[in-house]
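INFO worker-7 received task bundle
INFO bundle size: 2
INFO processing item 0
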Amino acid sequence: MGGDRVMKIANAKALKAALDRALRQVEITDIHTHLYAPCFRELQCWGIDELLTYHYLIAEFFRASDLPYDDFWKLPKRGQADAIWKALFIDHSPLSEACRGVLTALDRLGLDVKKRDLKAYRKYFDGQKVEKQIDRVFEIAGLRDCYMTNDPFDDLERPVWEGGYRADARFKAALRIDPILLGWDKAMPRLKEWGYDVEPEVTDRTAAEVRRFLGTWAKRMDGRYVGVSLPPTFAAPEDSVTGRMLEKAVLPACLELELPLALMVGVKRRVNPGLRMAGDAVGLARIEPVEYLCARYPKNKFMLTMLARENQHGACVAARKFRNLHLFGCWWFVNNPSIIDEIMRERIELLGPLVTPQHSDARILEQVVYKWDHSKKVIGDVLLEKYTDLLGSGWTLDEKELRRDVDGFFGGNFREFLKRRL
């Protein structure tokens, strides 16, 4: 970096220019996605038809169409995409964040959205190879690397890890444990089938075997954290299979493996079964279980994102009280510009720069283009205001410090949290 780049930022114009450069050049670590490394071929989701049939758009489609659920699900994927394109992009203006996101992704990939030519978009994607598309999408989105969501109970994913996995430094693993904490009646027979001596009740022997299972898979995947998506009714402590499994097996395993436990709290599953995966909703959760875990297990690291807008303030206050708690992302239903703006302000005002304000949660490769494009704009606007306030107080700032902070927001803070000793 040249000497002029580390001079003190003297005025509003210089601040905006320096911040724009930092945001444009930062290399992003996307700490929670549902993307997969190239070797997971059967699990790869990419292209225009996947973008259009993403569950966000499916839910919107049924608000604009009287097509019966069963008739929609009987359509092939391209038929579903055709129906969604017509209903949400042609018959109505695509104003929602999910619809706008499809257009942003197409535009950034060099496709002409003004033509509204679905056939041309398909032709483009049909002519691409997924490996090259990953390279291009990561470059456009500014991604350094991302974290997958890896479930050893997935019958398509597990065989790749057991034979055929080829490491790609851009794709890090995160061990997902929802079946163990939320579906033990189904997970237990699978573990027995794989040679683990487990029982329906969470006995000491069962807990030890679950710890052994988690250790085996965390090491096999080189997992960097353990994650679980939880309902708004999540409670701790709790005298239940979930509560006992959490405290007797999962948290001891995380401590031994030196891995954070990522809690994603607030999802209500299948409130409308006819929508299938698009039928999930949001519920208000309690912050007390998170406080209990952080206080009861001070040597464990926890990551937290909450689904309800109303839970964000409590989450910020909890993170002020516990250094073993790291807030991350604007998840799912709060991943909208107006709410990202609000949450970003709240976090900075209560926690300063030591948070990870966003993750993409992308399931479709090209989604990272729009999710980071849109989020960086909102985050940048908030940062500009906050740094302007800081300079207005008489504080001085140079571009090196600004870049340090921006790198922290877009992955550096998370990497430091992983390394931190408690």
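INFO item 0 finished
INFO processing item 1
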Amino acid sequence: MLPFISHMSLEQAGAEQEVGASISIYAVGSSSLVWMTWIDQLHLLLRRLGYRLPLVPPRAAGGQFYAQEVPRCDDTKYFEHLPTTRLGRIGWSSWDFAFEGWEGCSNGVRHIEGHRIKCQHGPGCVFSNESVFASSIAEDASVSDFTLLATWFNDDQQWSSKYKCLNGRKTKQHDLGSISIRCLLRTIRSIHARSARTWVLVMGKYPQTYQHITFKYLQALNKRIKAAVETEPRTLFIEYYIPNAKEGDFFQVAHSGHPNCRGSSIMAQAVVHRLFQEKILARTIRLAGLDKQQLLKRNCRKLDIPSCHSSGFCWIDPIDGLCKAYSPGSHHFHAVCKGTICGMHSPS
């Protein structure tokens, strides 16, 4: 593993996790954990910053160590072999992870925030009847220093299945947001009931909209979720901006609607930046800024190191230390299956 040299990183004193510390990460969510590379890129970034990442054993909830189907990135060879425990389920929503099996279900539905939600998993709630226990997720999360939650990304996408999870009842975005908050808080509190020391990081939602524009409703939704979850102890909301289709190529062809290698890199960097900002990590990468102007710079060969790190189009090649163009990644995905847990799950 090639660490960042001193002028590529920035340090601070008095942080909770000093450089060289062992920190373990665990992630729970939907398809972003099996069809994207952001959690694997985060693992690589933390290791290059000088942290050790012992593996979280999936003792109770089940899970996998690797992604399932992801595009090939310019730096895939540096992170794909790194095991990172995750519980990723395609098409699931926040309510699929937040309860003790089918508790509260009656006649096949559960009431959440005054809404009837079908008690099955996956897109349209028409796939698996698998029982998933919030306490089991909490048991695995309790072994981690950081648990990342991406469980709510599908909540506002119920239109895509004609609101089948809600018995065909068209539901307003505000109401779906209320459901997300209720379920996220249940998951966070379940984790903290087992381990008060674990930091829970709720990932902000990227735009799954026309041309991937971050419309005002999504800005408002992210802001609302942030305000709700950050009332909980040791809980942070991770904000980031992924450029839209007119600003650049940041979303996959292989799995439409999901950020590609570039978008995943932005998400990974956002996690580290927030942890450094909150004096949890002692070291981060050196940035020129987090504004859109820096993010959209393309003249990689002419950028200094901080500007290269800040650009969504560039990366520092660890072999020669030069700033180069970072591609969106391959149009086609490849299967990742290593070790004893391959993570080959259907949309259950």
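INFO item 1 finished
INFO post-check item 1: The chain is about 25% helix and 15% strand.
INFO post-check item 1: The longest strand covers residues 25-29.
INFO worker-7 idle
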